[in-house]
DNA sequence: GGTGTAAGGTCAACCCTGTTGGCATAAGGC
DNA sequence: GCCTTATGCCAACAGGGTTGACCTTACACC
C-alpha cells in the first residue's frame, strides 16, 4: 500500500502497467480531466480512473495519498493552465482583467473538474505562482501593501467563487441536459404576478440573463474599485 | 420504495417510527442540519440521518426522491433563515446590504450545510422568495428593468459564491483543526523571497487577512456600482 | 363503530465507493 | 549480472445510496 507516496521529482523506476502504459502524476491528472468530462463531476472514481489508465485502482495510491490529494492536483493543473494562457503587458488594469478572465476561462473549460476543485485552496506550486503574480501586478501598480493584499484577496476569492458557481451550472447543464436553465424558463416564467410581481415583470429579461456569468460584471466592479484606491493612494 | 414522494402539503397519515418520532420534511431537514454540524459536510449519510431520526434509512425516500433532493431542501432552509433574519427599511442601499449580509450569515451559520448547497440553484419556494425580494428592492429604487436584472444577477451569484467559498474554509477549519489557515502561516510565510518576492513582502499582511471573508468588500463594490447606475438612470 | 385501503415504516439485499495489506515482478544502481 | 526495493496487482474491508417486498396501522367511508 502507499505508506509513502514518492514525490514526482524523485521518481526513478518507471514500471509499465499491465496494459503497457507508463504512469506519471501528469498523465494521471490529464486522464482524470478526461474522465471528469466524460462521466461528470461525480464520475471520477478510483476504479474508473484506474480503468481509464489501464491500471489497478490501488496503483493510484503510489502517486497520491488519496482521492483528495488527486483532486487538489487537478485544481492546480487548472491554475497552471490559467497562468499559461496569460501574458503580462505591464498595464495593471489590463493585466488584472486578463488574468481574472484566464482563471475563469481555465476553470470553465473543465466545468466538472472546476466543481470539484474551485472552492478549495490547494497550496500547490501553480496556485502559489498565481498568487505571486496577482500581488506583483497590484504592488507594481503602486498600491500600498495593505491595500494590495485586500484587493488581492477579493480578486482571487471572487474569481474562484464565480468559477465554482458558473462551473456548477455549466456542468449541470452538460450532465442533465440543461435542467437548470430550463428551470428559469419553466418555473420562474410561470409564477403568478400577484404573489411574485417583480419576477413576473422581469421574467423575459431573467431568462435571457441567468444562463450567462455575472463574473465579468463583478470583475469590472473590482477593477473600478481598485482604480479608485490607486487614485487615493497617489494623492 | 418511494415510487412517488408525497408532497408535504398532501401528507395525511402520520405514522410514528419504531422509535416513536413522527417525521416531517421540516424535522428531517432540521435533523440533517444537526448531523451536518456534528459530523462534517461529508458526514451526512442516509444511514446516519436515519439513525439520528430513529428511523430506517429507506424511510427518507418517502419524503425525498434521494439524497440530492434532500440536499436542495437543506439549501432552501438556509435561504428561508436568511430572509427571516432580515427586515425592510425602504432604503434600497441599506436593504440590499442587510439582505446580502443576512444570506452570507445564514449560510456561514451552518458551514457544513453551506458547502453542500451554496453552489446550487434549488428552484424551491424560499429561494424564489429571496429572488423576488431582491428584484423588488432594485426596481423599487428606480432602476430600469434591464439594469435591475443585471445587478440582481451579480448580487445573488456573488452572495452565494462567497458563501460557498467562505463556508468551505470555515467547515474545513472546524473539521481539520484549521489546516487551511495554518497553510497560510506555514507554507506561504516560508517562501523564499527571491522566487516569490511579492508574497514574501506581504506575508504578514496575508496571514492576517486571508482567514477573513472578502465578501463585505465585494458587497460594497456592488453597492457602489449600483448607486452609480442609479445616478445615471436618474439623469 | 367496523372495515378496507394504501401510506408509510422496515428489512434485506444490490452494486458502488475509497482504501489497505500482502504479494509478485522488474527497473536500475552497483 | 545481481540485489534491492519501487511499483504494479489482487483480494478484501467497511461503509455509501438506493430499491423491492413486506408489514402495520392511520384514516376515509359507510
UniProtKB/TrEMBL annotation, chains A, B:
Is Transport set as a keyword in this record? no
Q: Is the Secreted keyword given for this protein?
A: no
Q: Which PROSITE patterns match?
A: HTH_TETR_2
Report the SUPFAM superfamilies cross-referenced here: Homeodomain-like, Tetracyclin repressor-like, C-terminal domain
For the biological process aspect of GO, one term held by this record is: negative regulation of DNA-templated transcription
**Listed InterPro entries:** Homeodomain-like_sf, HTH_TetR, Repressor_TetR_C, Tet_transcr_reg_TetR-rel_C_sf
Protein known as: TetR family transcriptional regulator
Recite the lineage of the species: Bacteria, Bacillati, Actinomycetota, Actinomycetes, Kitasatosporales
Name one molecular function that GO assigns to this entry: DNA binding
Q: Which residues bind DNA?
A: 45-64
* Signal sequence region: none
All copies of the HTH tetR-type domain together span 22-82
Keywords (A to Z) from UniProt = DNA-binding, Transcription, Transcription regulation
Amino acid at each position: 500500500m502507499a505508506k509513502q507516496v514518492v514525490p514526482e521529482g524523485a521518481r526513478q523506476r518507471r514500471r509499465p502497467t499491465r496494459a503497457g502504459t507508463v504512469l506519471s502524476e501528469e498523465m494521471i491528472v490529464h486522464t482524470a480531466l478526461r474522465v471528469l468530462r466524460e462521466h461528470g463531476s461525480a464520475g471520477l472514481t478510483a476504479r474508473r480512473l484506474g480503468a481509464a489508465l489501464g491500471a489497478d485502482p490501488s496503483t493510484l495510491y503510489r502517486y497520491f495519498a488519496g482521492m483528495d490529494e488527486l483532486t487538489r492536483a487537478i485544481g492546480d493543473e487548472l491554475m497552471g493552465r490559467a497562468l499559461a494562457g496569460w501574458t503580462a503587458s505591464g498595464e495593471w488594469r489590463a493585466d488584472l482583467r486578463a488574468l481574472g478572465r484566464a482563471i475563469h476561462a481555465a476553470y470553465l473549460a473543465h466545468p466538472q473538474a472546476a466543481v470539484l476543485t474551485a472552492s478549495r485552496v490547494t497550496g500547490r506550486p501553480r496556485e502559489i505562482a498565481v498568487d505571486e503574480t496577482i500581488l506583483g501586478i497590484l504592488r507594481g501598480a503602486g498600491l500600498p501593501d495593505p491595500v494590495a493584499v485586500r484587493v488581492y484577496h477579493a480578486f482571487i476569492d471572487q474569481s474562484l467563487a464565480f468559477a465554482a458557481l458558473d462551473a456548477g451550472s455549466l456542468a449541470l447543464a452538460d450532465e442533465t441536459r440543461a435542467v437548470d436553465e430550463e428551470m428559469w424558463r419553466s418555473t420562474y416564467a410561470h409564477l403568478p404576478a400577484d404573489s411574485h410581481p417583480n419576477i413576473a415583470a422581469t421574467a423575459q429579461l431573467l431568462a435571457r440573463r441567468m444562463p450567462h456569468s455575472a463574473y465579468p460584471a463583478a470583475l469590472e466592479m473590482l477593477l473600478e474599485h481598485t482604480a479608485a484606491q490607486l487614485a487615493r493612494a497617489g494623492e
